[in-house]
Specification:
The protein has 448 residues and is mostly helical. 63% of the residues lie in helices and 4% in strands. It has a domain of 89 residues. It is built from 19 helices and five strands. The strands form two sheets. It has a three-stranded mixed β-sheet with strand order 1-3-2. Strands 4-5 form a two-stranded antiparallel sheet. A hairpin with a 5-residue loop joins strand 4 and strand 5. The longest helix is centred in the C-terminal third of the chain and has 30 residues. The radius of gyration is 23 Å and the shape is globular.
């Protein structure tokens, strides 16, 4: 297709802002518990306009410049919005392939789960045996969260710990990458919610103290540094910075917006998982921050433990995702025994495989016998778009250990809410342009 001219592009951006502003309004309306039941009544106020706008856009499969990239991504986001709207009124959207489409999950990432489990099963088994034989695993007493006196003391301890980590890690990361300077805008506290999360309204990361604290043999509160560093990388460097940098960027509204953004969720999680690993490398390469955190003496052993525990955690998570994939995908057959056999290959006992299957079938099956959409949507955690985007830069000679290169890569990953395909196209375009000359950065008015 012909190159998009500035006037045509500007017109598309203006219209996209109008459409996504209305989608924001609709989403706020149906998020109200009282009005959600009546969403189909007002659907005709939204869906026709979104569909009409989508049909008016030029189709761009391989964007060659910034304007084409944004319009290509706008097409995908509108596809996702239309699917989200139709899902509200169409019961057929519980089918496996339609849920993958709704979330823009690359099919290959789902299929790759089987190969990853096969490749890592023996290694995981070896690590578990070694941990058991060496006695190097750490026995931790659970905290009695139901006892007010203990719970209150633990909350005070955890809140002090996480705030201190943030006070030290924020400036440290700010020196490594230009985007890190905004970590000071983010508040970090604790929550008694079931899981840690980031709240963009209050720009606050809330960490679950039960995930990062334990009681040691002396019956004293202690912090699990591995868990704290990992969740800090995920929630603060990942989700929180993604939100802050997106809001401060020059991107069009739809790339800053959460509106009906199911298709961007896999990318957001992939980016957060990426920074779980990156933060450990950052700390490993700086003795001063290790000393400030009080972990310098034990860090080498901690880093080794991190790799082992990460592999075990990844295996368990990927096994759960593979179970969902096999149970949900009708192309795997309709005989339960056949599906259990597929799952059993990657379990370490038949009992675990049967327990896993029974758990999902008992708790997460809808009236049609399908795994419900919320369960299948967990497959968003298998998407590797952030790693592929990062690799685009490495293949072009970028060095992540250099401040300038890292800042470009981090901004690419963290600015905007992109679909998996969109993030990878963005990285490919920026890496290609800047590998020729860093002065080409002037070609980007929006995405850098």
């Amino acid at each position: 297709m012909a190159d998009l001219r500035a006037k045509e592009f500007d017109s598309i951006v203006v219209k996209s802002n109008e459409v996504f502003d209305r989608l924001n309004h609709f989403e706020k309306f149906v998020s109200n518990g009282v009005y959600r039941f009546f969403n189909s009544v007002v659907m005709d106020k939204v869906l026709p306009e979104v569909s009409s706008f989508k049909e008016s856009l030029p189709r761009i499969d391989e964007p060659k410049n910034e304007r084409e990239l944004i319009v290509a991504e706008l097409n995908r986001r509108l596809d996702g919005a239309i699917l989200s709207l139709e899902q509200m009124v169409d019961s057929n959207y519980v089918e496996f392939d339609k849920i993958l489409s709704l979330l823009a999950i690359p099919e290959q990432d789902v299929k790759d789960l089987e190969g990853w489990l096969s490749e890592n099963k023996l290694r995981v088994e070896s690590i578990v045996k070694q941990l058991y034989e060496d006695g190097t695993f750490e026995y931790q007493l659970n905290i009695q969260s139901d006892v007010p006196k203990i719970s209150k003391k633990m909350q005070e301890f955890a809140d002090h710990v996480v705030k201190n980590y943030h006070k030290l890690l924020g400036p440290f990361i700010g020196k490594l990458t230009s985007g890190g300077e905004f970590l000071g805008d983010i508040d970090v506290t604790i929550t008694l919610n079931g899981r840690s999360y980031y709240n963009p309204v209050f720009n606050t990361v809330a960490l679950n103290p039960f995930q990062i604290c334990f009681i040691d043999k002396k019956k004293e509160f202690n912090v699990n540094e591995l868990a704290l560093i990992r969740v800090y990388g995920h929630e603060v460097m990942g989700h929180a910075l993604n939100s802050v940098l997106s809001e401060k960027s020059n991107l069009p509204l739809f790339l800053k917006s959460y509106s009906l953004s199911h298709s961007t969720l896999p990318t957001a999680e992939s980016v957060a998982q990426f920074y779980e690993k990156i933060i450990f490398s950052d700390i490993k390469n700086d003795k001063e921050i290790q000393q400030k955190l009080g972990i310098a003496d034990d860090f080498e052993e901690m880093y080794k433990k991190f790799h082992n525990e990460s592999l075990l955690s990844d295996y368990l998570n990927n096994f759960n995702l593979y179970t969902i994939y096999v149970l949900a995908d009708k192309s795997k057959g309709d005989q339960l025994d056949e599906k259990i056999h597929l799952i059993e290959r990657f379990s370490f006992s038949k009992a675990n495989a049967y327990y896993q299957v029974d758990y999902f079938l008992k708790n997460f099956v809808d009236h049609k016998g399908n795994l419900n959409p919320r369960t299948v949507s967990e497959l968003k955690y298998c998407v590797k778009s952030a790693y592929r985007a990062y690799q685009e830069f490495i293949d072009k000679g970028f060095d992540y250990s250099k401040h300038e290169d890292r800042s470009i890569i981090d901004k690419t990953l963290l600015e905007g809410y992109w679909t998996p395909q969109g993030l990878e196209q963005k990285a490919r375009l920026i890496a290609s342009e800047l590998s020729e000359s860093r002065e080409n950065i002037s070609k980007f008015s929006y995405i850098l």
